[in-house]
Amino acid sequence: MPDTLIRNGTVVTARDTTRADVLIQGERIREVRAGVAAPSGAAIIDATGMYVMPGGIDAHTHLDMPFGGSKSSDDFETGTRAAAFGGTTSIVDFAIQGRGTRMRDALDTWWKKAEGRACIDYGLHMIVTDLGECGLEDMDDMVREGVASFKLFMAYPNVLMVDDATIFKALSQTAKNGALICMHAENGSVIAVIIARALAEGKTAPIYHALTRPPRAEAEAVHRAIAMAEIAGAPVYIVHLSSEDALNQVREARDRGVPAFAETCPQYLLLSIEELERPGFEGAKYVFTPPLRPKEHLPKLWDGLKQDHLQVVSTDHCPFCFEDQKMLGKDDFTKIPNGGPGIENRLQLIHHYGVNAGKLSLNRFVELTSTTPARIFGMYPRKGEIAPGSDADIVIWDPGASLTISAKTHHMRVDYSMFEGFQVKGNARTVLSRGEVIVDNGQWKGKPGRGAYLKRAARGGAWR
Ligand SMILES: [Zn+2]
């Protein structure tokens, strides 16, 4: 691969904003400073008027994920390609341990899903459904394979939910092996009772998905997760935090110096519960968990991002097509596949509604969408940084580019957009993954299978 010199751009990292050129040799960044001379034969990319940022890292995606006889509509090829179009150059997806099986089997299964398909680098979290006889041993084994984080569910009884003893054992194991527990925090047992009541009363429309999962059920589980982590002496990371109630729990813990972390997603920052009341069955497009909340929650979450009560923006990308998948729940909201598409639009939305709207600085934008997820999940400084030695995962961002988000033009393999018609300013112009241009001016230049598995390090460092 010839050297590449990115010239005349503004380098934006989590720390600072500077005018500098970036020299790339092979897959890595070699030099970052003003006035780098082009080596002979180097490819030159002119970035006048552009931001040169570390590629986005989406720490929460579900590609090719089985769900009740169906599966999420993006696989590792279509999903990672769509991610790249939006400036994301690494993802961390989830392998799912089947009850009564070894975690190694799940890891092998998910490696196979990604092999030959992934267009950008990918890591894997392991969803733990059962610790059984060998679960704790398996966790250590996974850490050696670069699976430095585990997800546990406090929701979805009889499917994914685990009891507090399992959660506490897993947390205690990570206190030793340095991995991070990610929690889906909702009180699944209470929610199951509320759902059963709703169905008995004939309440089957999509809106009841949201009304049966109250914010307090989320806050209670966040509180319990953090308390158990404190007792175990381990950090904890709350996934897809959606409500003010839950945010207050994280803030309270962090104020006491507890290593609790949380992410939120664009849908919780930009959409509210009214979406589920759209006419016909359209509300099903907005059925995911936790649900959308009343409008009052949205500014609180933005404020949480600003104040560092929330550290990461991910997408929880888990697309299901409206026509043939969401329709499964036409007569019963509990049969609607839970999930929505978003992997492509994360940077566009957070840049526009965060940076352009004056809620976040450019540096904070990079921190939330790239640098902090790299740190927390054990990829830093290889990922999430523009500095000598880091992988040349770079987004050349055009802050003036106008885009109307639409299912007609997006690259995700799904027949609707949650953000249909949203007009944003700012988009990825050129995207490099390990030194290779994979997106340029709306053209796809990458190849499926070029994305590599990311072996992530335990003790990522965010809590040291
Ligand atoms: Zn998820």
Quick summary of this structure?
The protein has 464 residues and is α/β, with parallel strands linked by helices. The chain is built from twelve helices and 21 strands.
Keywords:
alpha/beta; eight-stranded parallel beta sheet; seven-stranded mixed beta sheet; 12 helices; 21 strands; 22% strand; binds zinc ion
Structure description:
It is built from 12 helices and 21 strands. With 464 residues, the chain is of the alpha/beta class. A hairpin with a 2-residue loop joins strand 19 (423-433) and strand 20. It is globular. The chain is 29% helix and 22% strand. Strands 8-11-12-13-14-15-16-17 form an 8-stranded parallel sheet. It has helices spanning 76-85, 103-114, 135-144, 164-177, 188-200, 207-211, 215-232, 244-255, 266-270, 297-306, 346-356, 362-376; strands at residues 4-7, 10-12, 17-19, 21-25, 28-33, 43-46, 51-54, 56-61, 66-67, 70-71, 88-96, 121-127, 149-153, 180-184, 236-238, 260-264, 312-313, 394-404, 423-433, 436-440, 443-444. Helix 3 (135-144) runs parallel beside helix 4 (164-177), helix 4 (164-177) packs across helix 7 and helix 7 (215-232) packs parallel to helix 8. The two termini are 38 Å apart. The longest helix has 18 residues, at 215-232. The structure holds zinc ion. Zinc ion (ZN) is lined by residues 60, 62, 316, 318.
Q: Calculate the terminal CA-CA distance, rounded to whole Å.
A: 38 Å
Described by its quaternary structure, the protein is single chain
Helix content: 25-40%
Secondary structure category: alpha/beta
Low-confidence stretches: none
**What percent of residues are in strands?**
15-25%
Tally of DSSP helical segments: 12
Provide the residue-averaged pLDDT: 97
Largest sheet, order of strands side by side? Answer: 8-11-12-13-14-15-16-17
Query: Main β-sheet: number of strands, strand sense, barrel status?
Result: 8 strands, parallel
- Characterize the overall form: globular
Total number of strands: 21
Question: What ligands are attached or bound here?
Answer: zinc ion
Computed CA radius of gyration, to the nearest angstrom: 21 Å
